[in-house]
């Protein structure tokens, strides 16, 4: 549920009145918002849960369509309105998109609406798009939508696992510099992770930077337990903490200790099929056509001549042809001066 006293709570509609000059528009917006609130309360659970596959398939389509139509310079309001009609009505996403569209028209951002629909959108989704919507952020909205699209595709696949989702989200934060503290906090609240995962992610927030990430991953793997049993000759050894990763993840983590974490991410993707994090495209260097560049040089020379003539410093002698002293003058039979 949203916190009491928000701008859309009953009795606080005067906050919206400041945004609407026309009373008719104000009444329409309040009616739409109240209807959406009542519908979401009836339809959505109180806490974020792991959705059915259809929801993630439609979410992936929404993030992809939103990104592609932004590239076509379409208004965000039109995109949300059109995509909500394309999404399957048997899912809850169309209702969520209508709510986001109303929030976008009032506040100019969709993350505010996503935070209010925390029972549908995960905290990590809200975190990624909130970083993309910051005014001075270097993180592009298209990159954020691509990250969420790949995440939804992974959640809709048959190979989905908490280990794969954790590595994907952590690499997304790492590659794009989104901030570990807030990012890990949002990851810990994901419905895919149980209490053991949430507790371990909280420990990572405290230890990250002091302890290498690959070492922390290796310490919670089945591969380390297997090595301890072999080293101590104790097949009944059980760690006092929950094991979160398998043998293959632990082996890869140990092999990449002391190396760049990007090598470990790539190895996990190769061996275990974990999803790849989208990378921002580098801007292409546009080369000017040689003919146009020559025209620019000619214009620059003409401007210099005009400036010199205006200031009275124009010297016409620099354009005279200088004769070659070694070659004799050429005489012709035609009357006139020699060439």
Named at the architecture level, the CATH assignment of the largest domain is Up-down Bundle
The CATH topology assignment of the largest domain is: Receptor-associated Protein
Low-confidence stretches are 1-20, 39-46
Domain module count: 2
Distance between the termini: 96 Å
The total of beta strands comes to 0
- Overall CATH class of the largest domain: Mainly Alpha
Question: Strand portion, in percent?
Answer: under 5%
> What is the count of DSSP helices, taking H or I runs of 4+ residues?
16
Query: What is the helical fraction, as a range of percent?
Result: 55-70%
Biggest β-sheet, characterized? none
| Overall mean confidence score, pLDDT | 82
Q: Give the overall shape, derived from the CA principal axes.
A: elongated
Order of helices and strands: HHHHHHHHHHHHHHHH
Structural class: mainly alpha
CATH superfamily descriptor of the largest domain: Type II secretion system (T2SS), domain F
User: Taking Cα atoms only, what radius of gyration do you get, to the nearest Å?
Assistant: 32 Å
Overview of this structure, please?
By secondary structure, the protein is mainly α. The chain has two domains: 1-160, Receptor-associated Protein (Up-down Bundle); 161-280, no CATH class. 59% of the residues lie in helices and 0% in strands. It contains 16 helices and no strands. The chain has helices at 14-17, 23-43, 53-71, 76-86, 93-107, 111-116, 123-132, 141-156, 162-176, 180-188, 195-207, 213-219, 222-232, 247-255, 261-272, 290-310. Residues 1-20 and 39-46 have low confidence and may be disordered.
């Amino acid at each position: 549920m949203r916190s009491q006293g928000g701008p859309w709570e009953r009795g606080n509609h005067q906050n919206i009145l400041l945004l609407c000059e026309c009373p008719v528009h104000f009444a329409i917006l309040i009616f739409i918002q109240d209807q959406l609130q009542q519908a979401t309360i009836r339809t959505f659970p109180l806490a974020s849960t792991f959705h059915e596959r259809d929801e993630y398939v439609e979410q992936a389509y929404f993030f992809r369509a939103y990104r592609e139509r932004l590239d076509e310079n379409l208004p965000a309001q039109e995109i949300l309105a059109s995509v909500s009609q394309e999404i399957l009505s048997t899912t809850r996403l169309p209702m969520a998109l209508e709510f986001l569209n109303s929030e976008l028209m009032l506040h100019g951002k969709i993350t505010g609406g996503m935070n209010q629909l925390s029972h549908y959108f995960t905290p990590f989704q809200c975190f990624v798009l909130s970083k993309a919507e910051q005014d001075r952020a270097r993180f592009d909205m298209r990159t954020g939508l691509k990250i969420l699209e790949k995440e939804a595709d992974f959640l809709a696949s048959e190979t989905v696992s908490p280990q794969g989702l954790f590595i994907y989200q952590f690499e997304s934060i790492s590659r794009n510099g989104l901030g570990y503290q807030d990012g890990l906090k949002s990851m810990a609240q994901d419905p895919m992770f149980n209490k053991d995962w949430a507790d371990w992610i909280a420990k990572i927030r405290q230890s990250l930077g002091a302890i290498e990430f690959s070492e922390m991953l290796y310490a919670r793997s089945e591969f380390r337990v297997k090595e301890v049993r072999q080293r101590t000759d104790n097949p009944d050894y059980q760690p006092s903490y929950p094991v979160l990763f398998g043998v293959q993840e632990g082996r890869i983590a140990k092999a990449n200790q002391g190396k760049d974490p990007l090598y470990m991410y790539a190895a996990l993707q190769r061996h275990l099929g974990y999803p790849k994090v989208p990378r921002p495209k580098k801007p292409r260097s546009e080369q000017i056509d040689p003919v146009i560049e020559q025209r620019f040089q000619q214009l620059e020379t003409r401007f210099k001549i005009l400036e010199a003539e205006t200031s009275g410093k124009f010297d016409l002698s620099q354009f005279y042809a200088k004769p070659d002293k070694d070659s004799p003058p050429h005489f012709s039979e035609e009357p006139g001066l020699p060439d």
